[in-house]
Amino acid sequence: MLGRVETRSVSPVFVGRAEELTTLNDALARAAAGEPQALLVGGEAGVGKTRLVEEFAAAAAREGSVVALGGCVEIGADGLPFAPFSTALRALRRELPAELAAAAAGQEDELARLLPELGETGTGRHDEEGMARLFELTARLLERVAADRTVLVALEDLHWADASTRHLLAYLFRTLRTGRLVVLATYRSDDIHRRHPLRPLLAELDRMRTVHRIELGRFNRAEVARQIAGIHAAEPDPDRVDEIFRRSDGNAFFVEELAVACSEDCCTGLTDSLRDLLLVRVETLPESAQRVTRIVAEGGSTVEYRLLAAVAGLAEDDLIEALRAAVNANILLATPGDDEGYRFRHSLVREAVADDLLPGERSRLNRRYAEALEADPGLVPADQRVMRLASYWYHARDAAKALPAVLDASAAARRRHAYSEQLGLLERAMELWDVAPEEVKAALRPADHTEVYRAPDAADPATTPLRYLDLMAASAVAGRFCGERERALKITKRALRLLDEEDDPLLAAWFWIQRSRLVQAKGRDDGWKELGTAQELVRGLPPSEVHAEVLTNVATWCMLHEPGAEALAAAERAVQYARMVGAREIELNARVTRGVLVVDAGDIETGLAELYDVKEQSLADGHSHVAGRTYVNLPSELEAVGRSAEAVGILEEGTGFARKYGLLDTEAFVWGNLSDSLFSLGRWDEAAEAASNALRRGHSAKPRGAAALCLAHVALARGDAAEAARQLAAAHSSFGTHDPVPQQWLPLAFIGIGVAASEGRVLDARGALDRALDAGTPPGTQRFGWRLLLAAATAEADSRRLPVAREGREAALDRILGAAKRLTTGAPIWEAHDLWVRAELQWAAGITAPDVWSEVVTAFEGLERPYDLARVRHRLAEALLATGGDDERDRVTELLRLAHAVAEHLGARPLTDAVSLLAQRARIGLGPAPRQQRPHDPAHDLGLTSREREVLRLVSAGRTNRQIAEELFISPKTASVHVSNILGKLGVSGRGEAAAVAHRLGLFPTETLTT
Question: Which pTM does this prediction carry?
């Protein structure tokens, strides 16, 4: 092949760009310090973006950085999915093979979608999070590779990027937080017209403070003079500089072309036409070289030598001479690497040559490319073959060849989670469908190309022909997965119109399910109308997978929107139908819904047992989506019944699981639930951090809204009403108004009441309560309902002396009490809240009853709720001071000191202030109690917590784990964990030895050890 050739039209002198290089070098320095950097370099075609990147990359490499370059590949008008990232990762693998392998360990099957060299692509689940999973794993891979070294990833020609590449780049720019990494991308600013697909991404990136954008301008006259001097290695004539500067307008590439043209005495006959300028040196080549340039122009960004030889049909010596002429004229460049080939030195010249082709000439060249690639698939890299063949046949205008090739390419795009490209290819297939020969269509199979819908009565997949409706089904799902929901809705609408003329209720029901998901995702409606239509279509039909899926979706919708007996019945039917047809994943999914509804119906242990069982089975079967649901719903139900510590253990496990499998929304929901449970346990700093993680990890709006509510709760409890209000507004914005569900409107009202009450707006608090209760507190919403009623009752109690609150108070109290009577009290936490709400209502009505508050305190002393316990202790102290004598003063002092210690530890400023004010009025000091000589406590020396001491007392009394659980209102599993911890701390191997140690040390009075 060709050796190194002279490139005299490229100036050996790098001209100008000092400010831009400084910006880039500063970014590299920050990255080296551990702060990832995101940069965009824009400028018109030919202005010098590539040269700037080359200079920067060379300097970075000299300083020890690892440089990985990738360019967006154009084949005709088509971009290859993820092409620049695949190229960059391939470069990283060459430079750092061991490090990249270690960073990818355990996720090779997923990352192989971008870098096939890592192994076989996994057959994992396709869903809305499929692409996000791949993006998350890619971000983590880059962060790991860049943990101990500075890495520069430069992606060129973003204006040609496919949608999947654009989405991945945006994701990286949004989420990279660690690693010594620089991600830089270039694009042509003059190509970005109003409807260019890159335009929305640029607008989004402009709003990110972490993205630095550099716009390259044209050269001034002095810089043009320096560039010409570099090209000619001599000072140019001033008049010639003026002429070239005028005609090039400072564009670096045009300066080069004009400088060379003038040196070859072509300048005088050249018009000011851009096309003439770009083609002038091509037209001076020998005819064979011109022919080769035309072939290369239609082949794509780069054309492999062997493919070019097959298409050109020239003798090898003649081809090499033609290539040598084009390379010596600096029109083509040889590309190094395993797949050696040729590309135009500048894409502007390629575009000009391609635009100069005649229509028949273009289709003929594409046909020859396609035929050559079909005859020898090894002519191009394996990961590009299918896509390029589809593009060549499509542009050859041969429907018989193009349709199967385009469908093969769509299946390949789906395997790579490149759903945007899959959608475009499927739409191209639908365009070709009517003009393709019937025998070609008859040979196509759904199992090979679509996969999303399988008719229950279909014959052997190997003989079932592909239908146009199968293409529409696959297109609708691809549109949903890639976020092109409007296009997907239009496709489902057309499909249902076609199905009006066919007797296929199952396929129609399937399309209605898709529409339900799409309208919910678009924020248009709650999706019930579409689900109801699907349900009617399958009613009375024999069991099928579609039937089971419809019932599962109905049950899940009802669980969220209208929980209760009907929702539970729907979940039962979904489980039965899924089992009958052997739809294992659908069955497990329906069982998650059923387990949640059973817990909410009051059969707590049965429901939790089902959720635990589904979690283990889904993990064993590899159903990551269902397992992810259990990591969200199981601890949520544990939290709902007051078992927060048990919930935290599962949630901490769940964050790792969700991150491992790239389940971004699942991970965000897990972090949000973890925040709730940590708040309950009095670990507020950790709760706020977990909520922040949920905001950062959330892929869609709803988990971000839930996280904002968690942050609002912490802010409110700490007395920052302004921050609570800000987060409340963010939650409202995230949830929207199109799809209200109780688990959203009740917490929103709870925070709204708290904010209003903290600002003395008791009437606004009442209004928020009325709106929430008007919307309803369906069965199963006790967790949210009791908090809401407590906030409202407390607001009334705290404002009982305000004149503005007098009018309407009686009606408000009656409404709160009426709502409380309708809420379930089937768990200790709900029973405690029932007592608390009623005590607050009495307080609001002017009734001070210490005995009532003592009962509330006793109820909370057995729960894992330090903040709630501190609040009710404060109330009891206040009641005792209002009604008791001096004989209660010691008790009041102890109550206030305990409440104050917890409030200060949590940073609960409103409670701290309230306790301090009450103590000041009662002339009670809140410092440490006078030191008393206490007997030595061996349990403290052994490191036993108060809860472990209680468990050891019961173990010593001969209680089983189940008996311990019942007495302490914890689960048998939690009791078992406590017992294991105790055995370890005592250094014994069994319960009998533990009891003997407790007896020997005199930990418990003799009477407590009797059974």
Answer: 0.75
